[in-house]
Automatic annotation (TrEMBL):
<dbReference type="InterPro" id="IPR041739">
    <property type="entry name" value="G5K_ProB"/>
</dbReference>
<dbReference type="InterPro" id="IPR005715">
    <property type="entry name" value="Glu_5kinase/COase_Synthase"/>
</dbReference>
<dbReference type="InterPro" id="IPR001048">
    <property type="entry name" value="Asp/Glu/Uridylate_kinase"/>
</dbReference>
<feature type="binding site">
    <location>
        <position position="46"/>
    </location>
    <ligand>
        <name>substrate</name>
    </ligand>
</feature>
<dbReference type="InterPro" id="IPR011529">
    <property type="entry name" value="Glu_5kinase"/>
</dbReference>
<keyword id="KW-0028">Amino-acid biosynthesis</keyword>
<feature type="binding site">
    <location>
        <begin position="164"/>
        <end position="165"/>
    </location>
    <ligand>
        <name>ATP</name>
    </ligand>
</feature>
<dbReference type="InterPro" id="IPR019797">
    <property type="entry name" value="Glutamate_5-kinase_CS"/>
</dbReference>
<feature type="domain" description="Aspartate/glutamate/uridylate kinase">
    <location>
        <begin position="1"/>
        <end position="230"/>
    </location>
</feature>
<dbReference type="GO" id="GO:0055129">
    <property type="term" value="P:L-proline biosynthetic process"/>
</dbReference>
<keyword id="KW-0963">Cytoplasm</keyword>
<dbReference type="InterPro" id="IPR001057">
    <property type="entry name" value="Glu/AcGlu_kinase"/>
</dbReference>
<dbReference type="GO" id="GO:0005829">
    <property type="term" value="C:cytosol"/>
</dbReference>
<protein>
    <recommendedName>
        <fullName>Glutamate 5-kinase</fullName>
        <ecNumber>2.7.2.11</ecNumber>
    </recommendedName>
</protein>
<comment type="similarity">
    <text>Belongs to the glutamate 5-kinase family.</text>
</comment>
<dbReference type="InterPro" id="IPR036393">
    <property type="entry name" value="AceGlu_kinase-like_sf"/>
</dbReference>
<feature type="binding site">
    <location>
        <position position="132"/>
    </location>
    <ligand>
        <name>substrate</name>
    </ligand>
</feature>
């Protein structure tokens, strides 16, 4: 299987912006094992801004320039961490920083597809993030849920897995509605489903459930299934590749 896994800031970082060592180590271990089992993995990783803010000892920035500066710092921290952890399992990582323009121009998209394909042939694990320090608002993808769906579409992935700080899509935000129920399968993204999704539940998260459901729409329209699951339980990825029900599955449209 060719799987795009996206992991959010609220999984990789503690609220103050320091690395969540337990989550990150658990995820890299399982991802490495899944790659060893013969699957192709593409990681879309958030947390550059959050980790940068942590390292610079500043609050999560709200102005664009400080956000971009923090992302420039945090992206180094992120890749240093991935390189080190994946290296323990003899895996090679490759950084790819993308903007909206890379998907919007045919020749850039073509280059991007070719590079990703070659990295996969070479058994390197692409680690993708938005190129935050240069992505001005006009050209910003805005969130990595969308980025994961766009990547999955352009390399014809079998599955996108969004690893969040919550088990899946609920009937309401469980942080404010403790009686909310998990929705295991979404066959069609109706306006009613879209209305269930709210914003981010933590100080570091960007998009919340809203951007995940929008991303699911993009992925499923391209025929790719998307699963939202909890990044704190890395080992659920084993169940996912075995086709067992985990989190919320958005079913891709059949051609
Ligand atoms: N209907 C819903 N079901 C589940 N979570 C929801 C819902 N609506 C809003 N949320 C919020 O979305 C959050 C996950 O998004 P986000 O904080 O951006 O995480 P990530 O960093 O993983 O992208 C949850 O913690 C939750 O508070
Ligand atoms: N590109 C940004 C993350 C954007 C984003 O979607 O964040 P998140 O909601 O934590 O997945 C960064 O690395 O800080």
């Amino acid at each position: 299987m060719r799987i795009v896994v996206k992991v959010g800031t609220s999984t990789l970082a503690h609220p103050g912006g320091l690395l969540n060592i337990r989550h990150t180590e658990d995820l890299v271990k399982v991802w490495s094992d899944i790659q060893n089992a013969g699957h192709q993995l593409i990681v879309v990783s958030s947390a550059a801004t959050g980790l940068g803010a942590g390292k610079l000892q500043i609050e999560k920035p709200s102005d664009l320039v400080t956000k971009q500066a923090a992302a420039a710092v945090g992206q180094c921290e992120l890749m240093y961490t991935y390189d080190r952890l994946f290296g323990q399992y003899n895996h090679t990582v490759a950084q790819m920083l993308l903007t909206w323009e890379d998907f919007d121009h045919e020749n850039r998209l073509h280059n991007l597809q070719n590079t990703l394909e070659r990295l996969l042939q070479l058994h390197a694990i692409p680690i993708i993030n938005e190129n935050d320090p240069v992505a001005c608002e006009e050209y910003s993808l805005g969130d990595n849920d969308t980025l994961a769906a766009l990547v999955a579409k352009c390399i014809h992935a079998d599955l996108v897995v969004l690893m969040s700080d919550i088990d899946g899509l609920y009937t309401a935000d469980p942080h404010t509605h403790p009686d909310a129920k998990l929705i295991p399968v979404v066959e069609e993204i109706t306006p009613e489903i879209e209305l269930l999704a709210g914003g981010a539940g933590s100080a570091l998260g960007t998009g919340g459930m809203l951007t995940k459901v929008t991303a699911a729409k993009r992925a499923t329209e391209a025929g790719v299934d998307m699963i939202i699951t909890n990044g704190a339980h890395a080992e659920v990825l084993y169940d996912i590749v075995e086709g067992k029900p985990v989190g919320t599955r958005f079913v891709g449209r059949k051609a």
